Structure formats: structure tokens, C-alpha cells
Amino acid sequence: MAEQSTGGESLLFLTDENLRKGIEAMFFAYRGFTADPDRILENMDYGRAHHRAVHFINRSPGTTVGNLLTILGVTKQSLNRVLRTLFDDGLVEARVGKQDKRERHLYLTDKGHSLERALSDAQRARMRAAYRAAGPSAVQGFRTVLEAMMDAEQRRQYQGPKEGST
Amino acid sequence: MAEQSTGGESLLFLTDENLRKGIEAMFFAYRGFTADPDRILENMDYGRAHHRAVHFINRSPGTTVGNLLTILGVTKQSLNRVLRTLFDDGLVEARVGKQDKRERHLYLTDKGHSLERALSDAQRARMRAAYRAAGPSAVQGFRTVLEAMMDAEQRRQYQGPKEGST
DNA sequence: CAAGATACGTCAGCCATGTTGACATTCCAA
DNA sequence: TTGGAATGTCAACATGGCTGACGTATCTTG
Asked: What region holds the HTH marR-type domain (chains A, B) (predicted)?
């Protein structure tokens, strides 16, 4: 992953000033990153928490409540509040596990898929524009730095459910 | 900025799968990004909002309340709650403007500087580790993509108080 | 089989941080 | 002198975190 080959080992990119810029870039970019889905959600009774739940259920259909808790890093009470509204509104469906009947496997309904689509279309549009403007090698660097910035556990979650998808 | 020179115009980096990975990378990385300062803050009576205020006052000493409102993108009521506790605890000082006496210019006190130091040391440490692991060209790409992901107004704020620092 | 552990749901309450709306003060500028 | 700008503040509310406590299936293990 790490492509440490500056040759002259110029570490100028590690100055406090550069780090500060990176920090602020994360702050402002994250705002942009969430702005479009937020705009969609604010008309409905949902928030960012619902977006996250829907996103990860879509990514890993049939995932359990416990898995989702691990990925999202919130308490079950907090997640439950969100899931309950998604059940009630018919966006998410919970099926009792076949092997372990204690588990609830979560799936998006058609209605859930259409919300997910709307949200991720908006978010992907911005991401795509940024990628296109920056170009492939910048995107590569972007991903590399972000991965290095995650906690180890988060990095594992990040690899996703399917592995060999290249 | 944009270094679109793939030659063969291979747009494979714009697949939905790649965009999804970028989206999740932002999500997980942002968690890591805020984790260390959050740990420091949770012992005190402060939260992320205080961190942001202190950060930007430190970056632009003497900035006004109005400036801060623009940068942070929250309501004055929300910001005021935060600023009041920072005043009361002697971390931030407000001086009445000399030219325009309606304005309050904000400065960190010594105590404020020491909190800012603690928070930004923690955050910079993670950023530095990520930068170092990723290498200079990845960092370049990281910054390029993040800048492209911001809203235009945010991008202006991001340039910071000093201009010619390249 | 009995007992403990696990997965999940839920009630109740607290906290941080965002929001609107309304109103007061001070001061600049036309 | 008057309108608007910059700021502070009170009140009320929403979202989405949190802890603690408790209940209920269900699985697992002695």
C-alpha cells in the first residue's frame, strides 16, 4: 500500500501547516459529503442515522442487528430507535434467522430500496464529480490516506462483505 | 488542479463500486479522524462543537463571531451556547472591535491555547501517521479529491486566512 | 434437563448540539 | 435621525448519541 519513494526523503509534506490543511479539508469535505443526502432527508422524518442504516443494510442484505451495531458503532438503544421507524414505515424488513432464531436478518423492502437509491444517487453524484475532477491517481491517493486514517477495526469493516470484486 | 491524463481515458475508477468504497472510506475515516479529540473531550464538559470553535479561533485569532458563524455553518444560538461556556471557563476572550464596536474579536487565552494544543496534537498525530504511511503523492491526491468534494463556499473558507502559502 | 450466555427489544431519562422564533442592545452609515 | 447590521439571549423543540435496568426468546453447555 505505502508508496514511500520520494527518493530524497523530503518530509515537507508532514509539516504542521500541511497537517492543519488536511484536518480542515476533512472537516469541510465531510460537510459537502453529507450535504446532498441531508437535503433529501430533511423533508422526511429521517436523519443521517437512517441513511447509515439503510446504506449498510443495502450493502449487506441479510445482515443481523448485531453486525449493524458493530459497523455503526452505536448502542442498540440508539439503533433500535432508528430501525423501529424503518420497520414501521415499511422500508426495512426483519426475518428471523433460520439457523439461529435469536437473530434478525435485515432486508430493504422495495420502498427501502427506492429511498436508498435516492440517497446514494445524490451522494455518488458528488463523489463522482470529485473523482472525475481529481483524476484516477488522486483517487488512489485519497483512498490510501483514508484507509490509513481509520482504526484497525474500522478498516476491517471497510473491506466489505465481498472480497474479490476487482 | 485536475490532472486528467490517463491517456487511454480509462474511466474504470468511476464505477459505482468504486464510488461506494469511497463513500464508506469517508465514513469510517471520519470516525477515526474525530476519535482521538473526542476521547479527550469526553472527560471534560466539552464536545466536538467546542473543539471546532477553539480550532478556528486558534487558526484566525481575532476573528469575529460572524466569521465563525459562516465557517462553522451553524446558527448563532447554537454557537453562542458553546462560546458562552468557553468564555465562562476562561478559554476564549472577546474583545470589542476598535473600528466597529459591535463586533467581538475572539482570542484564545493561555488556557484556551493549552486545550487547543492538546486536541490538535492528538488529531495531528493521527493525520501524520496516515500521511507518513501513505506517502507524499497519496497525500496530494487526498487533498485534491477532498477539495473537489467541498461546496464552493466551503472551499473559499478552506483556503484559510493566509493566501500565498504554496 | 437445568443453567447460563447470547441476541434482541424496550422503557425511562440524560446530554450535546442542532433548529426557529422573538426580542433587546449597540452602533455604523446613509 | 433612522434603518439595518452585529451580537446576545430567552424559550422551546428535535435528533441522535448515551447509560441503566429489565424482559424474552433461544442457543449452548455442563
From this structure: 16-151
CATH number for the domain that contains residue B31 = 1.10.10.10
B8 belongs to a structural domain = no
Question: Chain A closest CA to B101's CA: distance in Å?
Answer: 30
Residues B150/A24, Cβ–Cβ less than 8 Å: no
Find the CB nearest B135 among A2, A31, A139: A2
Q: State residue A7's pLDDT score.
A: 52
Q: Mind listing the pLDDT tens digit for each residue in B16-68?
A: 999 999 999 999 999 999 999 999 998 888 999 999 999 999 999 999 999 99
Percent over 90 (pLDDT), chain A: 81
- Would A23 be classed as within a structural domain? yes
A63, part of any domain: yes
Total number of domains constituting chain A: 1
Q: Do B1 and A133 touch (CB under 8 A)?
A: yes
Which structural domain range is residue A62 located in? Answer: 17-150
The reply to whether residue B157 touches residue A21, judged by beta carbons under 8 angstroms, is no
Sequence-separated contacts (24+) of A46-50 with Cβ below 8 Å: A46/A85, A49/A74, A49/A78, A49/A82, A50/A82, A50/A85, A50/A86
Residue whose C-alpha cell is 449493524? A68
pLDDT at B164 over 50: no
Determine which helix (DSSP H) or strand (DSSP E) holds A104, and give its type and residue range.
strand A104-108
Q: Does A6 touch chain B (CB under 8 A)?
A: yes
